[in-house]
């Protein structure tokens, strides 16, 4: 079983390994969400990480777990989102080479942000698959290590460090609400919390369209779905036909899988803007949208929502504000 490959010791090791690079993020009580829902709602603020998202944890743990020799050869990834940013950031902090492989469709703004972080950007082909193929070619030909965004035990263990912090900060937790895409975040946190107390409820949140993990679990095997534009853009992407870990771990550690409409995601983003003065991205908005949907239905349970990132641009925020 996959869950035998992971262990709490592995998560604690990750916590020690990443301590110099990763912030122990605040857990705040949300008066507004608590009043709205009738539960006691806390928010785990991964948007406070220096890169703006939790992906830093997994990337840092994976890269630091490589041998010094492998680190020197450099690291590569094919993600332009929060994972790509995290890999570039960690590489820069460690003074090693990073290459981000992208397709010609990736917007200039994203490319420049990666370059500013010191990454080499390799533009290859028309789509994400070309970029991914190229990344693995670099691994074969130049000995760089490809850092996967979720389906890797050290990445999962890195994300699991959130679970340890949440238990330290809020040992009374009854339920955690986690945005779900490839499932690295949910696998790590879910494993850590359930291994401490299996009664803690783990809820995964995906957008209604292109909810790949949700649909794959329903089918019983990893499937492909066409991507539809969504405000929760960090939750797009497949889980890989040859998924090794996160499909099984998500299946084992997730109690409820919920889908959230675009409208509810937008309301989630606006709610944090209004009540907490925080600009967060759609993936985090999806979690808030799910919490908001329980209006006055709560029974005082202690619920933690994972605010996973803040990678949202001003234009999107102002578009959202216009809909008010
Ligand atoms: C990657 C990401 C997620 C989803 O994490 P998975 O491990 O792929 O499930 C959620 N929120 C943000 C901001 C992300 O960057």
Automatic annotation (TrEMBL):
Top-rank taxon: Bacteria
Pfam families: PALP (PF00291)
Cofactor names: pyridoxal 5'-phosphate
CDD domains for this protein: Thr-dehyd (cd01562)
SUPFAM superfamilies: Tryptophan synthase beta subunit-like PLP-dependent enzymes (SSF53686)
Oxidoreductase as UniProt keyword: no
Keywords for this protein: Lyase, Pyridoxal phosphate
Matches recorded under InterPro entries: Ser/Thr_Dehydratase, Ser/Thr_deHydtase_PyrdxlP-BS, TrpB-like_PALP, TrpB-like_PALP_sf
Domain Tryptophan synthase beta chain-like PALP: 21-309
Keyword Lyase attributed: yes
Coiled-coil features, chain-numbered ranges: none
Name used for this protein in its record: Pyridoxal-phosphate dependent enzyme
Organism the protein comes from: Halobacillus naozhouensis
